[in-house]
Amino acid sequence: MQLDIKEISASAMVLFAVIDIIGSIPIIIGLRSKVGHIQSEKASIVAAVIMVAFLFVGEEILNLIGINVNSFAVAGAIIIFFLAIEMILGIRLYKDDAPETASIVPLAFPLIAGAGTLTSLLSLRAEYHVENIIVGIVINILFVYIVLKMSKRIEKFLGKSGIGVIRKIFGVILLAIAVKLFTENVSQLF
User: Fold this and answer.
1) What predicted TM-score, i.e. pTM, was given to this entire model?
2) Which end of the chain, N or C, is less packed with Cβ atoms under 10 Å?
3) Does the CA dihedral 62-67-71-77 come out positive or negative?
């Protein structure tokens, strides 16, 4: 095992920015008012299982269809770039339909372990050791669980403007990560 604090913190930060659980608090509050109770434990565990499973079998699925990890990392960098643009500019480039139930769908998937998160995992896998990414996943899932449990209190504390500022800061971090992923992997394709 090669646990590296730099790799753990980098992967945890990437996942934190992509999952954007703080920015999702308004969505969580909306789901809670529609459905009543959100099972924080269930949503967190299912999201963790999806992310770890995709970390291991995602590459095999890609190989099956003839795509290498570097190509996927470049595609992931482009998706992360657009997610960052959404966060920074406060616009919606991709929109899901409003769901009727909130237990697993859409909370665990696609809100927590969505396309951006899964793409980021494979992009991270192209650069970092798997065990460090798993520790990053665990850190994020613990944080997601805490946020789900305390979402009403966090919303009251931060207010709309506080959540907006946090989204923009993580948008800029995500943009820088997208550029780094793109430049490091695009050269290996040629």
Assistant:
1) 0.80
2) C
3) negative
